[in-house]
Amino acid sequence: MTDPFHDQTGRASLDGARGLAAARIGVGLVQGLLLYVLWRSAAQSEGLSDALTWPATQPPLFAALALACAFTPVMLLAGVGRLSVRTLALWGLIAAAALALLGWHDAAQQARDYFRPPYLRFPTVAFAAAALFIAHHLIVPAVAARRWIADFDDYFDTAWKAGVQLVLSLGFTGAFWLLLFLGAALFRVIGLSFLSDLIGEEWFAIPVTCLVFAVAVQLTDVRSGLIRGVRTVALMLLSWLLLVITVLAAGFLLALPFTGLDGLWKTGSATALVLSAAAALIVLINTAYQDGCEDNLPPVVLRVAVRVAAVLLTPLILIALWGLSLRIGQHGLTPDRIIASACALVGVVYAAGYGWAALSPFWRKTAWMKPLERTNVAAAVLTVGVILALFSPLLDPARLSVGDQVARLKRGAVSAADFDYAFLKWSAGRTGRRALAELARSSDADIAARAKRAQASTSRYDDERATPPGKPRITAWPKGAVLPEGFDAPVSSGDPRFACTGTEDCVAVMRDMNGDGRDEVLLAARFQITLFAAEAEGWRPQADYRADACVSPRGADHRELIKSPDVAPAPSPWPDLRLGAATAHRQARIDCPLIITPVNP
C-alpha cells in the first residue's frame, strides 16, 4: 500500500527529512532534561528522605510528571511527520494529561510505607504504556483517513511498523550503551577513567539515553521500506509459531475431560496461565492474518491453523472465567482478580469475534476471517477504556477489593479469624488502611482486636500478628488413619503447616522415627516433607526432607511419595559434627542412590 507519510524513495517527506530529524532530536533532548530534573529532585543522600526536593516531596505530583515525561515524548517521536503540528500538539496534551492523572491516582492511593520515587507501581506503568500505544495507533490512521474509523490495513501497517521501530530503537540504545561500557573498560586498562566517570554521571546518562533513542527512531523511519522488510520477516516467522501453540492448546483442551480441572485449579495461577495462552493465540493469529490483503494470504496450513486457533479461544476464555468465578466466590475480590477479570472481558470480545470469523463461512459467504478486522478495532477501543477505568478512581481495584472483602466479613462469608487483615494493611493502599481503622472501631470485640493487631504490625512477614491463623487441610494416610489430637489446629505463618492453609492440601503419615516408641508425624507438601515431634508446648518441626532427585523425577509431588508403604527411617552414613559446645549439622550431598535425605535437620 502507499505510505502517505513518505515519498517514493522511502524518505520522510513532511517538512523534509532534516526537519523531522531536528524535531525528533529536540523531543529527545527535552525528554532527557525533564527526566534528569525529576531524577535530581528524587536523588537521596544515604537514603535520607530529607534529601528530596520539590517535586519529589509531593508523591502524587512527582508520579504524574514521571509517567507523563516517560511516555508522552515517545508518542511524539512516533507522531512527528504523521500528524500535523496542531493535531500532534493537541493529542500530546491529551495523552500527557491522561498519563499524569493515572500517575497521580496511583501515588495518591498508595500507603506510605517504603514509599520511594517514582512512587509508581509496575502494573500502572505497564498498562499505561500499553494504553498509550494502542490509542496512538488508533488515532493516527483515523486522522490520516479523516474518518472516525480507518481501514484495517492502515491500522495494521501503522501499528506493526511502529512496533518494529520500537524494538529496533530499544536495541540500538542498548547497543550504544554496551559500546560505551566497552570503551570505558578499554580506557581503564591504560589508566584513564574519564569515560567511566562520565557515563556514571546522571546528567550525562539520562539525556544521552533519550537522545540516542530519538536518533534511533529517526534512523528507522527514514527508510520505511527496510522496516517493512524486517516486519515481513518477523511476521512470517511468528506466524509459523501459531502451529505450535494451536497444537498445544488443542491438546490441553482435549486432555481436560480425562484429567479434570482439579490439577489446573491447584496451581493457584490457572487463570493467568489460560489467559496468557489466549493472548498468545490472539497475537499469533494476527501475525498470520496481517492486513487481510490477498497478497499476504498465508499458506493453506496456516489458514487452517488460524481457524482452529480462533475457535479454541472460546473454551480457553470460558475456563479462565470459570476459574475467576470460583476464586472470587471462595475468597472474594482482590486487585489481581479484578485486573484478570478485565483481561478476561477483553478476551470475551476477541473470542466472540474470532469465533464468528472462523465459523461464519459455514452459513454465509465471506472473505477469509474478514470479521476479525472489526473485532480487533473494537477490542482495541475497549482495552484503552478498560485500562483508563481500572487505573483511575472509576474502577480502582483496591477500592473495589476492600469493599468486597469487608462486606464478606460483615455478612459472615468469612470468619473474623480467617479474614485477611494484612491485605488491608499492606496490599490495599490508603483505602485498605481506612477500612482497617474502621474495623478497629468495630463493635465486634474479636474483629476490633485483630484489626488493631494488624495496625500495630511493622511488616507483613516479620510476625504472626499480620497474618491470621488458618486451619490446615491435612489428610492422614493410609485411609482410615487419624491425625494426633491438635495437629491440625489453626496455625500462623512461620509454622510449616501454614502452607497447608492455601490452595493445596497436605498429607500426613505417622511413623516412629527415633525408636522411642512414640509416633512422630511426617507432613508432606508438594515439594518437601517436614518431621514433627510432640513436645510439652505442642507439635514442633524437627527436620525437613526432600526426595533424592537421582531416584525420583525432578519436581515429584512429595504428597504422593509419602504414601509409599516403605516409608521408614534410613540410617545416615555420616554423623553430625561436634564443635565444642556447638554442633554442626550435616548438609547432605546428593549421592545416588538415596531414598530420603534430610536437609536443615
Brief overview, please?
This protein has 4 domains: 205 residues, no CATH class; 169 residues, no CATH class; 70 residues, no CATH class; 126 residues, no CATH class.
Task: Write a structural description.
By secondary structure, the protein is of the alpha+beta class. The protein has 4 domains: 16-220, no CATH class; 227-395, no CATH class; 397-466, no CATH class; 474-599, no CATH class. The chain is 58% helix and 7% strand. It has 18 helices and 8 strands. The strands form 2 sheets. A 6-stranded mixed beta sheet has the order 1-2-3-4-5-8. Strands 6-7 form a two-stranded antiparallel sheet. Strand 2 and strand 3 form a beta hairpin. Helix 1 runs antiparallel to helix 7 and helix 10 (270-289) runs antiparallel to helix 11 (300-331). The longest helix has 38 residues, at 152-189. The chain is globular, with a radius of gyration of 30 Å. The termini are far apart. Mean pLDDT is 87; it is low at 1-14, 45-49 and 462-466.
Structure annotation, total helices: 18
Q: How many discrete domains?
A: 4
Rounded average pLDDT: 87
User: Which structural class fits the helix and strand makeup?
Assistant: alpha+beta
* Measured distance between first and last alpha carbons: 70 Å
Largest beta sheet: what is the strand line-up? 1-2-3-4-5-8
Question: What is the H/E order?
Answer: HHHHHHHHHHHHHHHHHEEEEEHEEE
